[in-house]
């Protein structure tokens, strides 16, 4: 058989093919397996490779990629010799430059040995590395390394910037649509392989920050605005919850894999070790146990250990999502109710879900800018009279009307002389357009409830016609943005922290 190479329209000289299989040929994989099968059984006979419950797993292969696994240096040395001999006999070549040694789980005080030991294949030296890229994945010998997390964060950031360039930013497309793109595109890429991450607070906060910055860019919020506030308006989970979900779904895949699968065997061995010695085991299993307990899902695992039964795929997914959601709502309430800056927010936004204001803006595009202003006020991410509402007891002096106030938003909306005309117009429109019962109802609210109502808490306008309520909010949105614009300067431009 002869072959030549076609490159840039030119043919190379012909050369003979003495060995190999045809690319894309139907028989090729079988022929290759036949060819390589003996090597694997020779390696198995050496009995220095790793065995899991009578199953030899010392030499997993993927196409022409070969991995050798042993618990001991001597064991791997023997396997390297064996592989080299096989390659001489059957005219294979191993590229020692593309061959590396990785050592996992080595004791700390043994690390100095790394610099002293050598690895050879057929007399040629191969390097020992701490990171290696293979099969589309970076393999880190230090499993607690921060590097994979930083890389994931970088990936998320890059996609975030890409989405911002597409229009996912303040005064761009609707934040609700931007959030959907984030959840469908950025999260899956950023969290690829998250099932096996071991996280701590530091790592997690790096990932949360990426999402928080993106959400702040979408909503046009100032840096330092609480991420929970933004998430609550968009109906999004924390990145931590997203990762936990992936881990819990992965758990079912492990449990329900066929019994002779290697990954299931490894999991069951670790699970049993953990059962006998829960305090001595670290890593994957205790991490899962902690997550199951966190979301009140332990009973399912307990039941599996007792009876071997586990919920069906759809049932498990539904339960996982429900329980995580429940815990996320509690966490969101805890976070948002603690911050004085979010006083108005927590009176108005009762559940973390797609916010009604944003929904309005999605349906009536002419309201987008007004809604954006309301969202900023709610999140305490706005300057009124040069003051960012911090919810404290400090008195401020109004530059517009000369009076003193504590709450800048309330002052502008209800008391400032500067905004009196805009306020009068609002009430004029309300009395003109709405039936008398509705006007009476609004008029009977005390200051606090009135503020809550105009900023979107529908509790006090319940029972009125839906169209009326919606029209009320359209009028109010116009008025709020008018009043606030009079008394404030709006930072339409993204500040430096949120623009990168
Ligand atoms: Zn004033």
TrEMBL record:
It holds the Pfam family RVT_1. It comes from the Eukaryota. This is Uncharacterized protein. It comes from Paramuricea clavata.
């Amino acid at each position: 058989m002869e072959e030549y190479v076609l490159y840039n329209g030119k043919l190379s000289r012909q050369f003979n093919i003495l060995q190999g299989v045809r690319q894309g040929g139907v028989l090729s994989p079988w022929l290759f397996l036949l060819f390589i099968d003996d090597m694997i059984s020779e390696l198995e006979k050496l009995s220095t490779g790793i065995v899991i419950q009578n199953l030899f797993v010392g030499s997993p292969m993927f196409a022409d990629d070969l991995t050798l696994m042993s618990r001991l240096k001597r064991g791997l040395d023997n396997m390297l010799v064996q592989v080299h001999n096989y390659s001489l006999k059957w005219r294979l070549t191993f590229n020692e430059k593309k061959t590396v040694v990785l050592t996992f789980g080595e004791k700390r005080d043994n690390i100095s040995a790394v610099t002293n030991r050598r690895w050879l294949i057929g007399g040629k030296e191969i390097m020992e590395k701490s990171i290696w890229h293979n099969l589309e994945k970076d393999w880190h010998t230090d499993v607690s390394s921060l590097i994979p997390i930083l890389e994931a964060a970088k990936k998320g950031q890059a996609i975030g910037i890409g989405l911002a360039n597409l229009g996912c930013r303040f005064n761009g497309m609707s934040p609700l649509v931007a959030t959907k793109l984030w959840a469908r595109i950025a999260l899956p890429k950023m969290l690829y392989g998250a099932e096996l991450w071991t996280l701590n607070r530091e790592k997690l906060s790096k990932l949360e920050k990426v999402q928080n910055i993106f959400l702040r860019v979408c909503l046009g919020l100032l840096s330092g605005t609480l991420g929970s506030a933004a998430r609550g308006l968009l109906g999004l989970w924390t990145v931590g919850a997203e990762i936990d979900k992936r881990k819990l779904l992965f758990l079912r895949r492990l449990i329900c894999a066929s019994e002779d699968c290697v990954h299931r065997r490894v999991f069951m061995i670790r699970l049993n070790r953990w059962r006998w010695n829960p305090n001595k085991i670290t890593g994957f299993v205790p991490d899962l146990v902690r997550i199951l307990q966190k979301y009140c899902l332990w009973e399912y695992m307990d039941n599996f250990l007792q009876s071997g039964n586990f919920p069906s795929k759809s049932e498990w997914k539904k339960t996982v999502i429900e329980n995580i959601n429940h815990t996320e709502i509690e966490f969101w309430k805890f976070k948002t109710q603690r911050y004085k800056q979010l006083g108005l927010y927590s009176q108005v936004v009762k559940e973390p879900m797609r916010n009604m204001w944003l929904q309005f803006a999605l349906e009536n595009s002419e309201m987008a800018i007004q809604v954006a202003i309301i969202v900023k006020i709610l999140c305490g991410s706005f300057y009124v009279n040069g003051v960012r509402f911090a919810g404290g007891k400090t008195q401020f002096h109004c530059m517009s009307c000369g009076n003193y106030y504590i709450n800048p938003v309330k002052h502008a909306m209800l008391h400032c002389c500067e905004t009196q005309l805009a306020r009068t117009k609002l009430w004029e429109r309300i009395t003109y357009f709405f039936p008398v019962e509705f006007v009476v109802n609004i008029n009977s609210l005390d200051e606090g409830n009135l503020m809550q109502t105009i900023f979107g808490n529908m509790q006090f306008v319940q029972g009125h016609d839906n169209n009326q309520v919606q029209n009320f909010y359209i009028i109010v949105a116009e008025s709020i943005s008018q009043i606030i614009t009079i008394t404030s300067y709006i930072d339409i431009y993204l500040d430096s922290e949120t623009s990168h």
